[in-house]
Amino acid sequence: MEKPAILVARAIFPDVLEKLAQHCTVESNTEDRDWTPEELAQRLQGKVGVLTTGSQRIDAGLLAACPDLRIVANMAVGYNNFDLDAMTRAGVQGTNTPDVLTETTADFGFALLMAAARRITESEHFLRAGHWKNWRYDMFAGAEVHGSRMGIIGMGRIGQGIARRGAHGFGMEVVYHNRSRLAPDLEAACKARYLDKEELLRTADHVVLVLPYSPQSHHTIGAAELALMKPTATLVNIARGGIVDDAALAAALRDRRIAAAGLDVFEGEPQVHPDLLALPNVVLTPHIASATVATRRAMAMLAADNLIAFLGGRGPLTPVNRPMAKI
Ligand code: GLV
Fold first, then answer.
1. Distance 165 CA to ligand 1 centre (A)
2. Shortest CA distance to 71 belongs to which of 311, 318, 326?
3. What is the pLDDT of residues 98-151, one digit of tens each?
């Protein structure tokens, strides 16, 4: 039987490509640059599946241009690069990579919180620039992490992982806001208490954002929300660009209306708002929260296994929609 033809839209681990090649005829992006939407559509001609990384937009226009496509396997837990309704209507299966990145991403969220609150990158730049001359009682004095109140907005698997780290490892008081409350046993496991968003923002020492991006969550944190936060507070965004109004955040950081921020995701990334780049009190990382070798390999493998299972007629492992029958 002929193998199904698939596209891999960016470079991935060679052994994952080899596994895919045992089951599929694979064309992969050997240049490893982002193709334009037109190039992607052209490469997808005759392909029934594609492995994407979260940077390729799958919308109605692309789907109309690629009638053979049956599955898009995202190597990411978030899938806001999918127009899910259009995919469902076009009979195209979407999959993501949940669970395999939960703990690694929670580690990173906590690392950004620590780095921002304890001014780690700011003080490192100071040292490297040769400015360190002596000890000072208040040199790079930051905010307490242990025993403080952490407010988490978006209490899915990763939010719960961060809550457990804070509550059990650092003796923090954890409060959260989410579309729906967690079941009592999950709240107990995270030692987390539900609060409305306003009270969380007003009272938390550290606010961590881990909610999915959607038109409804666009600018969950803007000027009005930043104005509610404590002047000593830290904001961490490991969710998605667009959840925070980056221009408003830069203004709040510049005017010290909040103390610090740690950001792994940005509006319009890989572009970063120039005002953020100029500020010392923000830690900036290039969307790497899930980036350990083991986790990125597990994500690539799960995306590949979704393609192999679906195209082998066994159904997707981690579906994000229930596509209508293809006509
Ligand atoms: C990364 O941002 C992901 O959604 O996995």
1. 20
2. 311
3. 999 999 999 999 999 999 999 999 999 999 999 999 999 999 999 999 999 999
**Across the chain, where does the E strand assignment appear?**
5-8, 25-28, 49-52, 71-74, 93-95, 149-153, 173-177, 192-194, 206-209, 234-237, 260-263, 282-284
Cα 225 to averaged position of ligand 1 atoms, centre (Å): 25
| Residues assigned a catalytic role | 240, 269, 287
Angle at 261 between CA 266 and CA 215, to 5 degrees: 40
Q: Whose CA is nearest to atom 5 of ligand 1?
A: 76
Residues 247 and 166 in one domain: yes
Asked if 259 and 307 sit in the same domain, the reply is no
Whether 165 is in a domain gets the answer: yes
The parent domain of residue 200 ranges over: 102-284
**Does the reported pTM lie above 0.90?**
yes
Q: Which atom of ligand 1 is nearest to the CA of 265?
A: 2
Structural domains in the chain (count): 2
* Closest residue CA from atom 4 of ligand 1: 78
Residue 75 Cα: closest atom of ligand 1? 5
